[in-house]
Each structure stands twice: as structure tokens, then as C-alpha cells.
Design brief:
Blueprint: E1 4-5, H1 13-16, E2 19-23, H2 27-38, E3 42-47, H3 53-59, E4 64-66, H4 67-73, E5 76-79, H5 86-94, E6 103-106, H6 110-113, E7 124-130, H7 134-142, E8 149-155, H8 161-171, E9 179-181, H9 184-199, H10 201-216, H11 221-250, H12 253-266, H13 269-283, H14 286-296, H15 301-311, H16 314-325
The structure holds nicotinamide-adenine-dinucleotide and magnesium ion (MG).
Nicotinamide-adenine-dinucleotide is lined by residues 24-29, 48, 53, 67, 80-83, 85, 89, 107-108, 129-130, 133-134.
């Protein structure tokens, strides 16, 4: 079993001696910047000149510079921009300042794995990838805990890359939960596969297909919504706590028997064969090439069309109506940017 690192195993002296420039203040950016700063690090947020986010970042107590100024100021430059804009921002504003001894840092291996960014050989290149949404990285930290993270070293010019990366994981709170080492290739390919085949793509299509099956058979959409979407969280929480066994322990024998006999009728070998095709497109770079071209050559138009189509699915309209009428415990849902510190 690979080593899991926790706070007690990690020395933060090296990372605390560095100036850390966080480029981008979105989901991950705001969380890293605030957590690092509250853990005692010297942090600046780099934003586009005239960015609307600057005011809220300053209000939250962060120092703000332009992207260019932050890249020049920082010893550790953290790329927390959308994956498809990182190459352009790197080439125009960061590369001129990547002097020997600096670190170039990512929260996802995409731009290195697919050769979109080619850093000089005399800088450290490492990754700290929290395994959860940015807003959870922030709220769990303020509650005294953290989201687990992966770290990876691509280039270790200084000989200190591992100590810096591990120190960074501790300062953002990940060492309270647990930190594992990976590589840029493994993190990128497994992350893309997980979100496409299981977590986001696979789950959404499974939920929609179940909902449609019930509604087309004449059942009430509201009841179908409860059965196929709302209860999913309760089931997944049990799985995250104790695996499938804990979930199956809590459900009825009726549900458990149906799980064993009907699950494999729905998700069969043909599904796995298509998952393998999805993985192949991730490994050979086809997915990355398509995505980068949609976002950069196509101005993200296709993504917007897909968003619009999915937003109008009947399950979304049913759910919006139901959630407005239901009492939901909001404690556990992600906060919007900066709310946690306001
Ligand atoms: P985001 O879309 O939430 O935020 C991006 C930030 O960059 C925003 O503040 C935006 O204003 C700014 N920005 C956009 N275009 C810009 C430009 N041209 N120049 C300068 N700034 C610009 O991004 P995110 O979801 O936090 O993702 C950042 C990185 O973290 C990505 O590599 C992503 O894969 C990785 N990551 C994200 C999550 C997550 O929970 N969202 C989880 C793990 C890893
Ligand atoms: Mg991901």
C-alpha cells in the first residue's frame, strides 16, 4: 500500500519561506489563497487587470496584483485558471518570469500531461490536487478539517520539490485528511476518467435514464425524482463512509437482493467496454484535443449548447419545483466564493 501523509509527517518551513502567487480566484483559487494565508503563508492573488473578482478578494483580506505582477513577485506560481486558458496565460504573463529556482504548480495535470505548457528545465514543476470541489476545500478548512489531496512531482530542479508540495498540502488543510503521491499522467487520466465515466457523466445519465423510465411508464415525475435523484446522496454518503457493505447493511433485504440481481442487468459488460473506449480517448489525447478546440477555436459555444440542452431536461424542472417546496438542510452544501470567510 502506498504511503498516506498526514500533518504530523509534514514540515512546512520551506513552503512558508516562499512567496506564493495564486493565479485565478475561482473555485480552487479562492480556497487555496485563503487557506494558505490563514496558515501563515505569504500569498498574493494574480488576476486579470480590471477583474471583477479583485474587489471581493480584497474584501476577504487577500492581496491582489495583476497576473503579470504576481508571476514576477512569486517564488511559487500556482495555475488555478481554467485548464483551457492556462497555456495562453502561461505564455503571455508567466513564462517571462519563470526564473531558475521557482516552482510552477498545478491543481490538475492536464496542461503538462498533454504538453500544452512546456516549462524550462531549471524550475520545479509539481501538483497539489485536492480531491473535492474548491468550496469544500475552503469550508472544511474553516471547520478545522480538510479535503484529501494528491501531490505529484514532474520536475525537481531544486531538490526540494517534494518538501514544498507536501508543505503546501498541509497549509491548505489536506494533511488533516490524508495526502497520497501520484504522477501527472496518473492524476490526469484517472481524474478525467472518473468524472466522465462515473462521477459526473455516468451518474447523470444513470439518474436521467431511471427518471425517464419511470415517467414514461406513467408514474409521477415528483416521485420519480425522489427515487432516482434525491435519495442518491443518502446512498452515496453511506458508501463513502463504509464502502458498499455499509450501504447494503443499512438498506432493506428487499433493496439488497434487488441490488445484486438487477444492478448487473443495467450495468453490464457492454457498459464496461464503452468505459474502456472513453479511457482510450483520454489516454491517446483525443478528448483533450477536442475539448481544447471547443473552448479555444469554438469559443466554448458547444459547451454552452450542451449546458442549455441539459438544463431543460424534465428532471431539472421537476427538481427545481420540488426543492423549492422541500425543507433541505443547507449546512452540507458548498458555499459560494468567500461566504465562508465573510
Ligand atoms: P474556475 O473556473 O472556478 O476559476 C478560474 C479563475 O480564473 C476565475 O477566477 C476566472 O476569473 C479566472 N480566469 C478565467 N479566464 C482567465 C484569463 N484568461 N486570465 C486570467 N484569469 C482568468 O477554475 P477552477 O475550477 O478553480 O479550476 C482551476 C484549476 O483547478 C484547474 O486546473 C482545475 O482542473 C483544477 N481543479 C478544480 C477543481 C474544482 O473543484 N473546481 C478540483 C480539482 C482541481
Ligand atoms: Mg476533476
Amino acid at each position: 500500500m502506498t504511503q498516506m501523509y498526514y500533518d504530523a509527517d509534514i514540515d512546512t518551513a520551506k513552503i512558508l519561506s516562499k512567496k506564493i502567487a495564486i493565479l485565478g480566484c475561482g473555485s480552487q483559487g479562492h480556497a487555496h489563497a485563503l487557506n494558505l494565508q490563514e496558515s501563515g503563508a505569504d500569498v498574493v492573488v494574480g488576476l486579470r487587470a480590471g477583474s471583477a473578482t479583485a474587489a471581493s478578494a480584497e474584501k476577504a483580506g487577500l492581496k491582489v496584483m495583476t497576473t503579470e505582477e504576481a508571476a514576477e513577485w512569486g517564488d511559487v506560481i500556482v495555475m488555478l485558471l481554467p485548464d483551457t486558458v492556462q497555456k495562453k496565460v502561461y505564455e503571455t504573463s508567466v513564462a517571462p518570469h519563470m526564473k531558475a529556482g521557482k516552482s510552477l504548480v498545478f491543481a490538475h495535470g492536464f496542461n503538462i500531461r498533454y504538453d500544452l505548457i512546456q516549462p524550462p528545465a531549471d524550475v520545479d514543476v509539481w501538483m497539489v490536487a485536492p480531491k473535492g470541489p474548491g468550496h469544500r476545500v475552503r469550508t472544511t478548512y474553516t471547520q478545522g478539517f480538510g479535503v484529501p489531496a494528491l501531490f505529484a512531482i514532474e520536475q525537481d530542479a531544486s531538490g526540494e520539490a517534494k518538501e514544498l508540495a507536501l508543505g503546501y498540502t498541509k497549509l491548505i488543510g489536506a494533511g488533516r485528511a490524508g495526502v497520497l503521491e501520484t504522477t501527472f499522467t496518473e492524476e490526469t487520466e484517472t481524474d478525467l476518467f472518473g468524472e466522465q465515466a462515473v462521477l459526473c457523466g455516468g451518474t447523470c445519465e444513470l439518474v436521467k435514464a431511471g427518471f425517464e423510465t419511470l415517467v414514461e411508464a406513467g408514474y409521477q415525475p415528483e416521485v420519480a425524482y425522489f427515487e432516482c435523484l434525491h435519495e442518491l446522496k443518502l446512498i452515496v454518503d453511506l458508501m463513502a463512509e463504509g464502502g458498499m457493505a455499509a450501504m447494503r447493511y443499512s438498506i432493506s433485504e428487499t433493496a439488497e437482493y434487488g441490488d445484486y440481481v438487477s444492478g448487473p442487468r443495467v450495468i453490464d459488460a457492454s457498459v464496461k467496454a464503452r468505459m474502456k473506449d472513453v479511457l482510450t480517448d483520454i489516454q491517446n489525447g483525443n478528448f483533450a484535443e477536442d475539448f481544447v478546440s471547443v473552448m479555444n477555436d469554438g469559443d466554448g459555444k458547444k459547451l454552452q449548447e450542451l449546458r442549455d440542452t441539459n438544463a431543460h431536461h424534465r428532471i431539472e424542472e421537476t427538481g427545481a419545483g420540488l426543492r423549492a417546496m422541500m425543507k433541505i438542510d443547507k449546512k452540507d452544501s458548498g458555499d459560494s466564493h468567500f461566504n465562508a470567510s465573510a
